[in-house]
Amino acid sequence: MGSKKRESSSMKESVVEELGQLKKDIDSVVEDAASKPLIKRMKKEKKKTDTEMIPDSDIQNHTNGVSTSSNGPKASLNSMERRKHRKVLAKVKIGANTKKIEAATEKMDIDSKDDSSNENNESAGTSNSSGGGVLPEFHIGVFKNLAAADVSVREAAAISLVKELRAVQKAYEKLANKDEVEDKSKLEAEKDDGLNNCAPSLRYAVRRLIRGLSSSRECARQGFALGLASLLSTVTSIKLESLLKLIVSLLEVTSNMKGQEAKDCLLGRLFAYGALARSEKLAEEWKSDNTTLLIKEFTGCLIALAAKKRYLQESAVATILEMIEKLPIEAVSNHVLEAPGFKEWFEGATEIGNPDALLLALKMQEKFNLDYKFGKLLPSPYSKNAFFSADHLSQIASCLKESTFCQPRVHSIWPVLVNNLLPDTVQDADSASGQISIKKHKKSRKVSSAEEDMERNLRCFSEVTVEGSLLTSSHDRKKLSFDVLQLLLPKLPASCVSVVLSYKIVQCLMDILSTKDSWLYKVAQHFLKELSEWLANDDDRRVEVIVALQKHSNGKFDCITRSKTVKDLMSDFKTQKGCLDFIKNLVTMFLDEGHSSDEPSDQSQTTDDNSEIGSIEDKGALVTQGTSEFLKSWIIESLPSVSKHLKLDKDAQFHVQKDVLKFLAVQGLFSSSLGTEVTSFELGEMFKWPKSAIPNALRQMCIEQLQQLLANAQKGEGPHAVVSGVEANDLGSYFMRFLGILRNIPSVSLSRALDADDEEAFKKLQATESQLLKEERNSGLSTDANKLHALRYLLIQLLLQIMLRPGEFFEAASELVICCKKAFGSSDILESSGEDEPDGDDAPALMDVLVDTMLSMLPQSTAPMRSAIEQVFKYFCDEITDDGLLRMLRVIKKDLKPARHHNMDSEDDEDDAEDDLLGLEEAEESDVEETGETADSDEQTDDSEAVIGVDAVTAQLPVADGDDSDDESDDEGMNDDEMFRMDSKLAEIFREKKNQAGGETAHSQLVLFKLRVLSLLEIYLHQNPGKPQVLKVFSNLAQTFANPQTTEGSEQLSQRIWGIIQKKIFKAKEHPRDESVELPVLEPLLEKYLKLAAKPFKRKKSAANPSKKKQSASWNRHKMLNSLAQSSIFWILKIIDSRNFPQTELQKVCDIFQNALVAYFDSKKSQMKCEFLKETFKRRPWIGRHLFGFLLEKCGSAKSQFRQVEALDLVTEILKSQLSSAADISSADVSKKMLKTHLPKLCHLIKHLVSNMPEKQTRRADVRKFCGKVFQILKTFELDASFLKSLEPEGHTACESQLGDVFLALKK
């Protein structure tokens, strides 16, 4: 046993010696290769394979051959060839030795396993020296894990590396004879590396860690730097001087290195110095010897390294900063600042533009407050105010501009500058100062002084650095300017937003965002996104940002950038305080006329084509008055929208609306004769006007927005919300009170002088509104209160309309006052003169006067006034008379064009009367442009809307005496004089309006008027769906839609009428079923719409080759008319069914259908759809029963087989409807009786069909299908025997031959 142990031990010793020798050879080759210039080692795969397969003998021979040839004079090689041979030799030798090591290792592992039980694992992980010393094993595989991409793997590898090497070094230090271990170690390194006190494994690891820092594989630099830093911080035997020499020698950059190879070495040195600085080795060196020169040497190496390449500077500075964090101030002053090249580096920084030198100087000054001259980088003596002065920022501008080399990353100098500009303590100065008590005046003054210094420094930084240096330079620097602004945002107080978002910044933003192809477009978009997120939950910031954007863009930011940035910001206020602050800022901006003069004018950005795109429209001459007027117009338009989008409680919203109302009323309605400020003692407020007179266009905008504000308030109230307990929240009553108070101030007058008529109407409206308010408060929550409330708001809107259009509304105002008195007669209502209040039997009804008055105001009214009219009409439409309704319908039917001549050659002369009534004559296509106005839009202004003399159009139209369903035309009931007066008045009004700005055509003006009247009719139909008058409205609207001359040129008008008919009439939950709806009224309508449903499509004879677009339009119109006719028939039949007329009275209805079917079967021109007839019979089975016999006759006598097959379908549908109704016993008896009555005709039809089968197979199949269905129904009603009995013998024979099993089954 002992001999075996000795043999095993000797074998292991020999293997260890052999491995050590091989390792020494490998290390020597590797060290030689590392000490020489690194060359790209790229070889072909074939050459690699051949080299690895060379045996040892060949290697020796090759070595001898090379050496021999190298010494021979005849075979001398040049330097390039010698270098090549040396590389091949090194490659071959390394490969051969590696194989030997692997074989020896495998053998040793096998022996170790055999002796493990006897050796107690003593030999595992150890290597023996000749002196008997034992060192722990160091696993070199750990280096592989140091380069892993996973951070946790790298950290574990570094821990394992340090742990093993510490154990090796500790064991090594305990050895008595260290030389023998070094001589025979398998991991021995060179003797002249300066690491004499380190174990061989440690020396090898240090050298390999330094070399590995130059590798670009995965995360090798990070991992090896981590390992080196950890090792240096735990193993104290590694000398700093030796380490610095090793870094320089192992990572030396020679002249032969180029490109990536040189870059790898430079980065390796940078990482090596970084690991050294992080390991605190330098601080330990200073503690042991404060006169050491190694700190100067280390700093000098870093400065020299930073000077080699620009991309090394920032990291080199970071390394120096990490070093000085661990050094005392004495070491920094005596060693770091005295390092070679340090002073020269600072002095030349401003000339070449070195942001890293500036960063180092700032950080060192902040930490140590040194009395050191950093060139021109820092002021002397240093202070933040001096550093951020305009002169000093101009000196370091070149350094800051050059910081763009690290794009897209932001250089480290900028966060440092931002922290100096906006320290955390000053950021909360606003909130902090609010908590300071009155006694602490000194502290308050300090906070105020700090805020002033911060704002002054920020302003200088913004003007000199951002605007003066970056914004005026390249695209990269423009991008950097926005990056810097984003760094400022988190710490920026709301009061300093105007400093950062300056005129030049906003103009630059608009320039970039106005062109989507711009390289900086996404940068600007990202900045706006960050800005929006920054102010999302802070209304103070929101106010400042909106004001800055609009002030510096003259109110055109959204227009020029084609975005909704400002609009979205304005619609998202969260608090009442934020809204009030915003209103206050806008008012201040409106009154301050000098704000725009402080900024330079830039015509390229304010007068381009994009400046007119956006929410501000139809300004006309206003835009030409300058950008300040445009900004004021934006302010006026924006104020009502603030309160519109608020999501606050009623009281808070009302408070905001009051502030807006006061501003609009003061600037739009009043002017001061004594200066620009007036104080109202009753209201306890001071009111201001701009120093220069407000243009009339802006005053009109104020009045229009005031109308819009009141309209929004009325809508927001919902159903009558103003009762005696909450009258304070009635914005209308507050406005009238405010108006009365300001009119009583002697130095305040209306901005526009009124003539006698307007002045009288103005006073009447004021007095009437006041009395109606009292009546409303006394009415509680009754229906009258809603009517009074709606009338009050109409009076207020009319009062403002008088200010907008003097001389046009005083008559309407007087009539409306009379209507108020008649509707709510009370002793409190003001008395009217006799001329205003006609009495007697000839006096018109109240609702007729009210309707005429509202119609007369509609054409010239603004959208808010139309909304008030609609509200009044909504509450009073239940009382409207037939005359008033007809007046409205005549406006819809009115046509300005002369009647076109009918084609007298038509074959349908007998239908001309009905076609004339429905307006079905075809007309040529019109090329008139369609108007874009929507009648029910409450948001748009009406400066460009047409004005029509409704007094002439409607008031002079006589009321028709008869029903509108007769054959009278639109203008019947008007004599020649009335028509002449109306046409003359219309011509005069249209001529006048054509000369005004905007000049629409007479046709478009009438279309606008019709759209507004349609809105009233829609309200009427919604409020009164089951009244008999609905039938009258329907017939007139259908006639208007069918007549091409009343809707021609306005697709919008057609679609509006179509929508009202479909939604408010056909699909309404109720329909007219009153006893006043007589059958004689419905029958003519039914007959006309049946003819319309059968009317064929006619092509235009006036156009030989009409365009496809016109043909398509004509065809679409024909389909819509056909759909209208069918829906109308269904609706009329629905009304007839609901009235439960007796069968005798319904005979006329069946006759009308029969006449339509006669034309359907006998005339090819009839285009009535079979599906429509089938649907009619399905919905109304009683019509099918009446027409069953007639259809049986027509099935056999139809002129064409096509019509015959369609007639069979109709008969089948009637039979199905009778079968479905047979579930009820009484209905089953009626159906059976009907079939039994018409059984002979049915037998005759079956015989005729089977005896004269059609030629086409499909039609023969239809006949067989029809017969089979008839036989099935006859069986159901047990009439099969009667049928067979009535069928003639010839019919039996024909049925058996043509129908076969179907007929035989009936027989059985």
Automatic annotation (TrEMBL):
InterPro entries: ARM-type_fold, DNA_pol_V/MYBBP1A. It comes from the Eukaryota. This is DNA polymerase V. Keywords: Nucleus. It comes from Erythranthe guttata (Yellow monkey flower). Residues 58-79 have a biased composition (Polar residues). Belongs to the MYBBP1A family. It is found in: Nucleus. Residues 1-10, 105-116 have a biased composition (Basic and acidic residues).
